[in-house]
Amino acid sequence: MSTQRHAPPEPPSTTIDAEEVVTIDRDQTPDRWRYTCPYGHTDWDRTNNHAWCPACRQLNESGFDVDPEHYEVLDKKREVMIPWEQLRLE
Fold first, then answer.
1. What's the rounded Cα separation, in Å, for the pair 6 and 14?
2. How many CB atoms lie within 10 A of CB 70?
3. Which end of the chain is more exposed for a tag (fewer CB within 10 A), N or C?
4. CB of 75 within 8 A of CB of 40?
5. pLDDT computed for residue 66 by the predictor
6. Phi, psi (deg, nearest 5) at residue 75
């Protein structure tokens, strides 16, 4: 039985104010669901200077044009992108 994969939705083009800094506690469930990769996946991890998403990697391996390395995180509540430089991860 094969499962059909659908392309993820396009992320919003709006970003937060340049002076704003957002603190995320990835150990807290609300933050894990609110702040996602640009395509809405909750299982991203921080790496050197960006976020890496294993779900996006799987989509890429399935033939979708999705990069698993992200330099922005999606705030699903506000529907804005947060640049990696403006994130503080606890």
1. 24
2. 23
3. N
4. no
5. 92
6. -95, 100
- Interacting residues of 24 by C-beta distance below 8 A, sequence separation 6+: 31, 35, 73, 87, 88, 89, 90
Q: Residue 82 and residue 78: Cα distance in Å, rounded?
A: 10
The pLDDT tens digits of the residues spanning 19-46 come to 999 999 988 999 999 999 999 999 999 9
SS3 75: strand
CA atoms of 61 and 33, how far apart (whole Å): 24
Mean pLDDT of 47-62: 94
Token output for 15: 């970003």
Rounded CA-CA distance 15/25 in Å is 20
CA 83 to chain centre: 10
Query: How far from the centroid of its chain's Cα atoms is residue 31's Cα?
Result: 12
